[in-house]
Amino acid sequence: MVPGERVLRMIVAVASDGMEFAGWLRHCKGVRKLDWPVDFAWQAEWNGQALTMVANGAGPRLAAAGLAAARERETVSAVMSIGWCGALDPALQLNDVFVALGVRTEAGDRAALAPRKMPAARRGVLWSGDRFIRTAAEKADLRQRGADAVEMEAGGLRFAGSFYAVRVVSDLATEDFALDFNRYRDADGRFQKARIALAGIRHPGDLLRMARRGREAAEALGDFLAQCEL
Predict the structure, then answer these.
(1) What pTM value is reported for the model?
(2) How far is CA 158 from CA 20, 155, 166, 208, 214, in A?
């Protein structure tokens, strides 16, 4: 190693959709696209740390495949699950950043770390499953199981080293979606955007709400992560 050269840790952040990284990318340096067999893969420097961002679709299996693609090509020192989440705790508001202290799945619980340096954020238990939770009644049921927020990828990210789950609230505990997005997934679990757009003709409010909130939430998450260090 050259004297004075910095040693960069390789952190892999996994989301379901590349849009979830949009706000974070604005705060990174040396951003470049990677030619990997996943939906989205970019590499950058984030606060002096080497970062790979991977998005490969919704659900634990696709998240696991995205992480596997990174581990085949890099020596990974830490894994982060990032992106949107739904509130289960009624106190959580839109664009609140949620840092998981644990991830709960049907198979059991696992611990998660908080960044050693970060702005104020909500903390709690993150439920991770393989379904989009669309009704307030479903959210209330998961709340009764001790979870504070819900998403679909963190449970698939098996890693023996440092693991983080940092999410941002894009829908509230009291809200319903008329459109059942779970009906429009392919055999691998990816949401089929063309079919969702067609189905959304009958429920345009759901799609407009998700698009607007998704952009705002991604920006809030990016602004938060810009101030974090692991």
Answers:
(1) 0.92
(2) 21, 8, 16, 34, 26
